[in-house]
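Before relying on records like the one below, remember that each one covers exactly one chain. Contacts with other chains, cofactors or solvent are not represented anywhere in the record.
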Amino acid sequence: MIKKFQVSRQARKLNAVPNSQTIFFTSWTVVEELPTEFSANVPLYMFNFVDFEDLDRKDRKGHGLVDVIGQLTVIHPVVQTSGLNGPSIRRSVELRDLSDRLLPITLWGEHATSFEDEFLIETISKDEPVVIIFAGMQVKTYLGSITCGSGSATKWYMNIDIPEVNAFRASLQGRSSEVLLLPGDGDAAAGATDEATSNRKTVSDLLSLDPHDNNGVRFTCDAKIKEIDVSNGWWYKGCSKCKRGVKATLEGFECTNCDDMKPMIVPSYKLNVVIEDITGRTKIFLFGGVAEQVVRRTAAELVEESSSNQILLPASLRSLVGRRYVFQVGISEQTFRTGQLCFQARKVFAAPAVAGERSSGAGSSVQDPPGGSSTTGNSGNQTGDGDSRLTNVPLDPEGASTPPPEHHTSTASKPSSAKGKEVPSGAPEESGNNLLGKRSRSARKELNFAKKEKASTE
């Protein structure tokens, strides 16, 4: 029993329970344990279930964590990867509701490693369906599909004796009770670690590849982002089901891939990024979830917060210019449609530290190649820092219609006040690259000081 407390409106974005009010304890708040005769009437479990089909409802925004119930059908093996935020461990499981809708669940960290053992302990020697409740889940949209992910508040309950589980189990009569436990690859962890370094190529190596001999092969390239070409926009209107670009009609939009006359439209990334190392410069495409991995924001969020203009780059994207990553790329299908060598990023990893390089986390600031570089892009045109005549790619692989191209010209690199380092003038100070901004302001202060000192001497 809790008494003497304050009540106010819930203002936080992630609420553990769907209630608009919050209890705040004060110095006078009293918490007392209830007598047994009263506590026996208090339920041991209390959930706020959300149906699978209602997880993406817009009026759910702000309700934060959710509880879901379903039949456990598939358990995927643990996957260890090395990403921009360092090593991560995850496991996917799948739930099915009474309408045969499937919901992917992603378990992270300790939740991923402990789930299989707990499942086997709870279900050993029991030939019955596993009805499981995941409580305190975060709802996310990944490539237009709804998924739930675990967090610090997540707990799960298998076949517990409550009315909701008993009713669900009774409705499963006649259905398969099998849970598919997919085997893991013993070398998966080692393979994930080697993935960021395997088949390493320079930009020059990539540009010399024969697309017919290397179609389907993945390569890694350690390079920095030199520019983002917005000639064809940085996002497109995609179908939430198939992720393909939608076609404009007199009544709205249609998805020719799904034959859906009224598809749900989701903004999706189509970043046309110019990467550069000391050997050359080329373009790569970053779509959907791969782009989200770098930007760490969804395209829908940026469109809603900044501008729906497909040509105007938001600050979150401008801040990527000058940053260095390891890109895992493959030859894009567009190569064979256009006759121009194009690459598409499949994954992005944090770049290894270099001696003398100042790191700022995943988005480390990277020095320019000494003396600048004059390189050959994928069109075969010779390009230098003073002329970035970029190849104009007609359509993105997702099939989205795009605006007519514009020409972009980048100026030469300007020397900074830091000895032996250069600052690309194309990277704006407000782009989020603090190192570049500080050097630029320092240079201005030194110049003003020199002018004042000269004037006083005269």
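The first helix runs from residue 36 to 39.
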